[in-house]
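Structure (tokenized):
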């Protein structure tokens, strides 16, 4: 019997074929893992949140680009209506489950992490590896470097 992961791949392939796509989606394969050990204690690190949750759903999906927003302007509820995931078993009613702002603030207060970035970072849900690698990731990296982040917490939806 195929694993859950394998069944997901098969379902996704069948879904796109049913929509008329003739070429199967090519899943990303990353031979190098972009991991860097921290060069200072966690209690001295500045952390930023990177999310795929949509801040402005009025912008069509095809026009969305990686962007940074002031953390103080983060909405109480992100618009997730046009994103795809298993909505019958999960939900986005609890912002903390996909945008852990209060948890991170608690970690700053306790001294577990040093600081929280004044901005959060949006990366659009993108099915093009090329766009992710050539546009969204570099834009997010530039913003993270500008904000002097030590850690980017990736929380995809």
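Design, position by position:
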């Amino acid at each position: 019997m195929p694993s859950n992961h394998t069944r997901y791949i098969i379902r996704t392939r069948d879904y796109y074929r049913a929509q008329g796509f003739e070429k199967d989606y090519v899943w990303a394969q990353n031979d190098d893992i972009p991991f860097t050990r921290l060069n200072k204690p966690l209690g001295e690190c500045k952390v930023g949140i990177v999310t795929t949750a949509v801040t402005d759903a009025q912008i069509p999906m095809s026009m969305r680009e990686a962007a940074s927003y002031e953390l103080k302007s983060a909405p109480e509820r992100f618009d997730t209506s046009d994103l795809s995931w298993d909505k019958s078993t999960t939900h986005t009613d609890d912002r903390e489950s996909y945008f852990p702002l209060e948890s991170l603030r608690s970690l700053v207060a306790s001294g577990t992490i040093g600081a929280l970035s004044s901005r959060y970072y949006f990366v659009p849900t993108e099915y093009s590896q090329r766009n992710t690698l050539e546009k969204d990731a570099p834009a997010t990296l530039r913003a993270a470097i500008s904000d002097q982040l030590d850690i980017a917490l990736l929380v995809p939806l």
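Reviewer-requested clarification: Residues 36-155 form one domain. Residues 69 and 131 are 20 Å apart (CA to CA).
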